[in-house]
Amino acid sequence: MDKLRKAYFSGSWYPDRKEDVLQQIEEYNRKLGPAEESALSVIVPHAGWYFSGHLAYDAVRRIKTDVQVVFILGGHLPDNQPFLFWSGDHCETPLGSLEIHRGLRDSFMKDLNAQFDNSPDNTIEVQLPFIRSHFGNIPIVPLRVPAGPSALLFPDTVQEILLKSNLKAAFIGSTDLTHYGPNYGFAPEDSLENPRKWVEDSDRKILEAMKTFSGADILRYGSDDSSACSAGAAAAASLLGRISGSVQGRLLWYETSLTRHQSSSFVGYGSLIFPC
Question: Phi, psi at residue 155, to the nearest 5°?
C-alpha cells in the first residue's frame, strides 16, 4: 500500500484548503503580472507564505513545464550530514498529492550513500502547492542537501543519473538568507549601528555568488557570514542552473521580513531564476 507523506505545515505556514490556495495563487498572479517560462533551475525562500510566498511563487511559475520530474532541494543541514531523501510514496498538498519518483530516489540514495528523512521539513513542503499548481501531477524528488563540499558534487551526479534515465528535470533550491536579531541569537557588533543595511549588504553578497554559479563562495558566505540557512541547496541549484544552460542567474526579488512585520529580529529572502 502506497504511503502518503502528511502535510505538516498546511493551515499555518500556508493555507490548508484547496480553494484558499487557489485564491492566493490567483492573487499572486494578479499582483505579479505575466511571466515567461524561461528557467530549469531556481532558488526560492521557504518562510510562511505570508512573508515570502509571493517571492517563491514568482520563481516557480517561470520554470519550463516540458520536464518529466522536479527536484526540490531543501536544507537546514550542516556540512557533516548525509543527503536526506523524503520517505514515502506520495506527498500531500491541498491541491492533490504529488508522487515521489521512487526509481530516481533509489538511484540517488545508492550513489550518495544517503538516508531517508521522516521529519517535518518546511524547506520543501511550502513549495509543493506551487509545484502542483504549475506542473500538475508531476513526479518529484524531494531531498535535503548538506551545506558542504558534497553539495558542489551533487550536480554531476544529477547529470549522470538523468542521462542514464533519459529524463529532463527542473530544480528548485530552497533557502532563506540572514536570520538576524535576538530571536536567532545573531547580531554581530559591526551590525548594531544599522542592522537592516548590514543584513542587506551581507545578503547581496551571497545572492551575487548564487547568480554567478560560485558554489564554493555560497557555502563560505553561508557559513562565515551566516547569510543562508540552507547554503547547500542554494549552491547545488545554482550549479544546476549552469548545467541546464544558463549564462547567469537573475535576481527577481530581495526583501526582508521587515516588509511584513517590524521587529528587532528579521530574515532576508531572495528569489532567483537561471534563464536558459
Answer: -60, -35
pLDDT in tens, 42-51: 999 999 999 9
13: DSSP letter:
T
> What is the pTM (predicted TM-score) of this model?
0.98
Q: Is 64 helix (H, G, I), strand (E, B) or coil?
A: coil
Q: Count other Cβ atoms within 10 Å, centred on residue 224.
A: 8
C-alpha cell of 145?
A: 542537501
Structural domains of the chain in order of their starting residue, each with its CATH number? 4-275 (3.40.830.10)
CA dihedral 115, 121, 123, 124 (to 10 degrees): 70
Alpha helices (H) in 127-227, listed in sequence order: 128-135, 149-165, 195-211, 215-224
For residues 133 and 100, the answer to whether their CB atoms sit within 8 Å is: no
Nearest to 63 by CA among 153, 136, 163: 136
Cα separation, 130 vs 133, whole angstroms: 5
